[in-house]
Amino acid sequence: MRRLSRDGWLAIGLFLLLALFTTISVVQQAEASLTDPPLASYSTQPQGSRALWLYLESQQLTLTDSAGSSFGVPSSVDLALVLEPTVAFTPGEWATLRGWVEEGGTLLLAGTTPATTSLAQELDVGYGLVPSADTAVSNQTPLLNAPALNEMAANAVYFLRPQRDDFVTLLANRVGNPVAIVFAEGDGRVILTTVTEPFSNEGLQTNGNPELVLNLLNTTPNLRGIWFDEWHHGVRPEADATLASNNWLQRTPGGRALLLALAIVFVGLLLRGRHFGRPVPLQKDIVRRAPLEYITGIANLSRRAGHRTAVLQHYHDRLKRDLGARYRLNPSLPDEEFINQLATYQPNLDTDALRQTLRRLSQTNVSESEMVQIVREATLFGKQ
After folding, report:
1. Element of type H or E holding 244
2. Own/partner pairs, 282-288, CB within 8 angstroms, 24+ separation
3. What single DSSP character describes residue 216?
4. Strand 158-162 vs strand 125-129: parallel, antiparallel, or unpaired?
5. Per residue in 253-308, pLDDT tens?
6. SS3 content of the chain, % helix, strand, coil (to 5)
7. Contact 196, 110 (CB under 8 A)
8. Any bridge partners for residue 64, and if so which?
């Protein structure tokens, strides 16, 4: 009996690997087909939201989950519900949704899936994990009072970390971290929350959760129509043919197996072939950056990091140094003592104006426009 060569064993091993990968893909797809996406409006499973659909219908609201051949928000709705999306938004889909919001629509984005957190990052909001003892949620604003919230049983495992200062906290956990916020986006608004239990079939049966859902929805002015985004739960009835033709390789076990087979063939050819030579780097001129580019870069990084308090403190110390240098006054003196000593050497000093300027430079929570105005006043005062 002839023994198999090294190449023969390699071929058998690659074939077994391909068969194993195909089997696992088929099993995973079969299991996934038995479970509906979380908070899908058509799902009657505990984590679905069919009960929410029926509940909102009983509130005389117009509902739709229409999905055409391409993603878009119907023109007849005021509120788009994006609940726990399981399919990531493409850049074009996000641009479409964001444009609709900026034209006056309201987006309610709820969940903690990767697709949800990536959209939150686009809106300058991050996520954090709540300690298990602090997941209880409480109302933080009188806006949530239609209908009255007499009790609240919702919990949130994650909290929000906004990198913006134009939001209003609607709900927070026990330590004060926001779990539901609202902020303006163009002419519209965005409601972002990590609380998902009240939207589910199971959670909607808990006392207080129906009222909480209505309160979140009623933050939308003149609410008439609501659209459930099932496109990002994978429901695309008029686009099945397009998906099958464009994404068959990525979305089916057979297509994935074919991709793996092609990868294995490439690896086999690479192992049997010759080694490539070393890459030869292309010649290029090394151009040194101008000093202004570094200064601009550092300034932009400081702006993104929100170092406004540090900037004000810098100009606060600099103003005192400039004013006291002529008389050799110690700039580290307390502001009031520094002003009194400076006034003894400079009788015409406007002490009230200086005191007000130093007080404004000592603020810790200012916007960027306020910071620029304060620094401008301090600079003009130092030149007097």
Report:
1. helix 240-246
2. none
3. H
4. antiparallel
5. 667 777 777 777 777 766 666 555 666 676 665 567 777 888 888 878 887 888 88
6. 50, 15, 40
7. yes
8. 227
pLDDT for residue 102 is more than 50 = yes
DSSP state of 276: P
Q: Is 293 exposed, middle or buried (0-12, 13-18, 19+ CB in 10 A)?
A: exposed
Q: How far apart are CA 252 and CA 80, in angstroms?
A: 30
What are the residue boundaries of the structural domains of the chain, listed by start?
50-235, 294-382
Alpha helices per DSSP H over 306-367: 308-325, 335-345, 351-361
CB 261 within 8 A of CB 15: no
Architecture of domain 50-235: 3-Layer(aba) Sandwich (3.40)
Helix count and strand count (H, E) for the chain = 13, 10
pLDDT tens digits, residue range 340-378?
998 898 888 888 888 998 898 888 888 888 888 888 888
| Residue labelled with tokens 């878009």 | 72
Helix axis angle for 351-361 and 308-325, nearest 10°, is 150
How remote is the C-alpha of 321 from its chain's centroid? 43
The set of residues, in sequence order, having a beta carbon less than 8 Å from that of 272 and lying 6+ positions away, is: 7
- pLDDT tens digits along 169-218: 999 988 889 999 999 999 999 999 999 999 999 988 988 888 888 888 88
Residues 293, 297, 298, CA angle at the centre, nearest 5°? 120
Instruction: Output the six-digit token pair for 44.
Output: 């009657």
Token pair, residue 329, equals: 């006054």
Q: Which residues contact 139 (CB under 8 A, 6 or more apart)?
A: 149, 152, 170, 171
